Amino acid sequence: MEHTFTANIKAILYNKFGNDADEIFKNSRLIQYINLKTRSANKGSKARSSFANLYAIYVIIEDYIAQGFEGKSDYSKYSGAAFVNLFTRQRELPFGNKLQNHALNNRMNSEFQKYFPSSEIIPILRNLETNRYWINENLLKIKIVKTEYNLASVIIEIIDEYSKTKQDAFQRFIKVCEELQEIESSRPERVVEFISSLLAPNIDARLFEIVSYSILKFYYHDQPIFWGFEIDNLTKDNLRLYKTGRTNANDGGIDFVMQPLGRFFQVTETLDFKKYFLDIDKIQKFPITFVIKSDETIGDLLSKIKANANKIYLVTAIIEKYMACIEEIINIPILKQCFSNTIESGYLNNILNEVITQSKVEFNYTETEELDDVE
Predict the structure, then answer these.
(1) I want to staple 253 with a disulfide (CB 3.0 to 4.6 A). Which of 52, 53, 217, 282 is the partner?
(2) How many CA atoms lie within 13 Å of 308's alpha carbon, on the beta-carbon side?
(3) Is 251:244 a contact under the CB 8 Å cutoff?
(4) In a shared domain, residues 258 and 335
C-alpha cells in the first residue's frame, strides 16, 4: 500500500540506492513493514503514531551500526545488545519516554508475522537466558540483480524522518491550541469546533485521553456531594477528578481518580473483553468506569464485551461478576454531551487550557519557544 509518507520513504531509498530504490521498496519486507507503520505521519496529531514497534527495530539496528557490523559478515558471532541499553535508548528517543518493554520482547515480532504470515523470518532475535538481542540480518540484506545492499542506515534515516514529521504535527497542534486561547472570548465557536474534533474514534489515543480528562474534570467540577461520619456533621464538597499519570502508562489500569468518592476511570479504545477483565483484576474487582473511544451505544458496547466473554468463559457466574464491576461506560456521545454541559457552565476556556497543559506534559513540550528547537 502507498500513503503520503511513502513518498518520503522512496525519496530516502532513491537518494541512497538510485535506480534500485523501487525494487528495494517492493522486495524488502522490513521496509514494507515500516511503510505500513508510518501511515499516520502526515495525518497530524490526531492519528496514532506507532512508535513502540518502530523504535524496537530502531534501537537494535542502531546498536548493529554502532558495533561496526554494517557491511561486515561476522554479526553471527556478536554477543548481542543488552536489554537495559536498548530499553534506555528507546526512552531517550522523541515520544519514547514512556514506552514499555512489550515491543522488544514480543509485540513487534507478532505484528510483523501478522502482516507477513508466510515469512519464516522474524525481525528481532533474543536469548531469554542472557537477555541479549539481535536484529535478524536476513531482513537487512537484500540483493538486487547482482548487488547486495545493507539497509541498516537507511532504516534509521526513515524512522528519524517519520519521528520528525510527527513532532512537526504535534508542534502545529500546540500552536493551534495557543492561537485559540487568544480568540476564545471573541470566537468561542472555533474552540468548540476544535475540541469537538478531538472526540472521534480515529484520533491519537493519547489526545483522546487528554481531552476526555479535560472535559470530565470540569463536568464533575460543580457537582456537590455531602459526606461525613456523622449525619448531623456533614461536609459539602465538589467532585474532583485527578489524572494519575502519563497516558498509556503501566499504572495498574487507573487513568483518572475521583475524589471524594474514590471512583476509578480507565480510558480504552478496544472492545477486547480480556483487556477490561484484566483491568478489573488489577484493582481486585473494585468498580471501575470505562471511557471508551467509540461512537457505539452503551448497550451495544456492553453486549459486545459480554458476548466476547461468553466465547471464552462458560460459567455465567464468572462473567456476571466481572460485568458487575463495570460501574459506568462513557462513550464519545456522552463525552460530547458532557462537553456541551461544561460550555453552558462557562468552562470552555478552562478545558482548552487543560488540554494545552496536559499535551505539553505528554509530549514533553514545556514552553512555546522550545517547540522550534525540536529536531
Answers:
(1) 282
(2) 15
(3) yes
(4) yes
CB 26 within 8 A of CB 33: no
Q: Are residues 331 and 194 in the same domain?
A: yes
Please give the Cα distance from 70 to 140 (Å, whole number): 9
Query: What's the 3-state SS for 241-299?
Result: EEECCCCCCCCCCCCEEEECCCEEEEEECCCCHHHHHHHHHHCCCCCEEEEECCCCCHH
Is the Cβ–Cβ distance between 259 and 220 less than 8 Å? Answer: no
Domain-embedded: residue 178: no
**Are residue 197 and residue 236 in the same domain, yes or no?**
yes
**pLDDT tens per residue across span 292-348:** 999 999 999 999 888 888 877 778 888 888 889 889 999 999 999 999 999 999 999
Position 30 scores a pLDDT of 96
Tens of pLDDT, residues 152-201:
999 999 999 998 888 887 778 888 888 898 888 889 999 999 999 999 88
Q: What is the pLDDT of residue 158?
A: 96
Query: Are 81 and 139 in a shared domain?
Result: yes
The amino acid sitting at 179 is E
In a domain, 176, yes or no: no
* 94 shares its domain with 227: no
Looking at residue 170, its pLDDT comes to 77
Q: Is 359 exposed, middle or buried (0-12, 13-18, 19+ CB in 10 A)?
A: buried
Residue numbers of the chain with a pLDDT score lower than 70 = 40-50, 98, 245-253, 363-375
**Nine-digit cell at 16?**
541512497
Do strands 124-127 and 288-292 pair parallel, antiparallel, or not at all (unpaired)? unpaired
Element housing 108 (H / E)? helix 108-115
Count of domains for the chain = 2
331, three cell numbers: 462513550
- Ranges of beta strands (E only) in 128-186 are 132-135, 141-144, 147-150
Domain limits for position 113: 6-165
Residue located via cell numbers 454541559 = 341
Give CA–CA dist 85/104, Å, rounded: 12
3-state DSSP call for residue 131? coil
| pLDDT at residue 374, rounded to an integer | 30
* Prediction pTM value: 0.66
DSSP code at position 80: -
At 66 the pLDDT is 94
Closest C-alpha to 39, from 204, 154, 210: 204
